[in-house]
Design a protein that fits this description.
The protein is an alpha/beta fold. The protein has helices spanning 44-61, 77-88, 125-131, 139-142, 194-202, 236-239, 242-253, 265-275, 291-298, 311-325, 370-381, 413-420, 479-487, and strands at 2-8, 21-25, 67-72, 93-100, 115-122, 156-160, 162-164, 174-175, 181-182, 188-190, 206-207, 217-221, 233-234, 281-284, 302-308, 343-349, 354-356, 362-364, 384-385, 396-397, 402-406, 410-411, 428-433, 435-436, 447-451. It folds into three domains: 2-136 and 228-349, Vaccinia Virus protein VP39 (Rossmann fold), CATH 3.40.50; 147-224, no CATH class; 354-487, Trna Endonuclease, Chain: A, domain 1. The chain is built from 13 helices and 25 strands.
Length: 488
Amino acid sequence: MFCAFFGGFDPGEGFFYCIKISRNIDPPYNTGSAFEHYDDNLEHSQWLNLMRPRLEILWRLLSEEGSLWISIDDDEQAYMKVLCDELFGRSSFIASVIWQKRTSPDMRSIISDGHDYILVYAKNREVFKAVRNRIPLTEDQATNYKNPDNDPKGPWASSDFTAQGWRPNQMYTIVTPSGKEVSPPEGRCWRHLEDVYIQLRQEGRLWFGSDGSGVPRKKTYLSESEGIAPWTWWPNKEVGHNQEAKKEIIALFGAQNVFETPKPERLIERIIHIASNPGDLVLDSFLGSGTTAAVAQKMGRRWIGVEMGNHAYTHCKVRLDKVIAGQDPGGITKAQNWQGGGGYRFYEVAPTLINKDPFDEYVINEAYDADMLAAAVALHEGFRYQPDSSLFWKQSVGNESSYLFVTTRHLNSIYLDSIKDTMEEGEYLIIACRSFDSGLDKAYGNITVKKIPQMLLDRCEFGKTDYNLNIVHPPVYDDEAEEEEQDE
């Protein structure tokens, strides 16, 4: 059972009308552990083969500004990176983030693993650099801003006003407030041209030391700070750890229903903050306990979550219902001032539509009826499934006077002639079938013949039913009469 969740702060909008699509995935780690909710014990090559097609699909879905964030442990990190480099190109690699997931060593281990990795790839490296967000200052970082000169603009931190190298137009002499003349140190020059220096000094943005005779330093005000550039070391005091994540889960589901490998909401908050803005779309194709969807909802993002298994109901849906209702007090709720609101849509993905019987014939899955195949093909082709009450071939309606007919029988010219005779002038028909006579796809001006999309036939298994897929009962022909007509 696959379940898909579609949600956002404003569920009335179309989910794909967005500037940016970011992906955050937390795939099974292939650790050898038999989790209650995952079979996390796949042989190594099987695991890589499992991940490859999913990564290819996610990459195709990324927008030009989008990025892919993959949480992975030490056992598989190197293999995952090689696979991603092969699929996306090494130039798309941004960073390998180290997340400190523990607060203390595991004394049972030879060398305790204190971290996991988050591999970051971007569809367009330069575009992502321009749009990615900085990380807000922590409380500790904010304490570095002081105001020893009682600057009316408030606390500030200073940075070096010199730069490495020698540039003639940046080698001017500066007279400090105390009257002392200073020049750049040997091997360095001033960071800005002299006219920029003059403007900064007039605005009071330079610090010459408490006595006014030091080498100038440039002020950066706390009130104007845009944060710091993200870097690859994420300590648990900033983004949370495993125990924090489990406490969040216990608060939501109780101690008897704990998801084995949750991520703390603060960790996902940082990823979503860096990679997206309110209104953007976030997708998690391994939704787990629903952390990404919950955090995205609280941060005003639109989101899609995909999960397989019963915990889509026992964990994901339960968690998101509480988030929507404002009944989730943990995680980033307080930091985001989340009061509840919004909504989501929940879909259960249907099982395989078409199977093969023991005689290698295509049959409808016993869970379906024949109309469902026609409806599925109609959706794929952009038509609206709407069977006509009198003409069997008018199954689905597209634009004005255009129709779609789906059948799994083999088509010949006699069958198409019988349909053509009932069509009115200006009507256009597409027929999706399993097979047809050679040249038949080009024989009729107002009838296009094509095969049922392979995507509906690829994933075939042995079925238990023994009926074929004719959507309607076609006209019955006398075989001898057909042969005589063909001879003529």
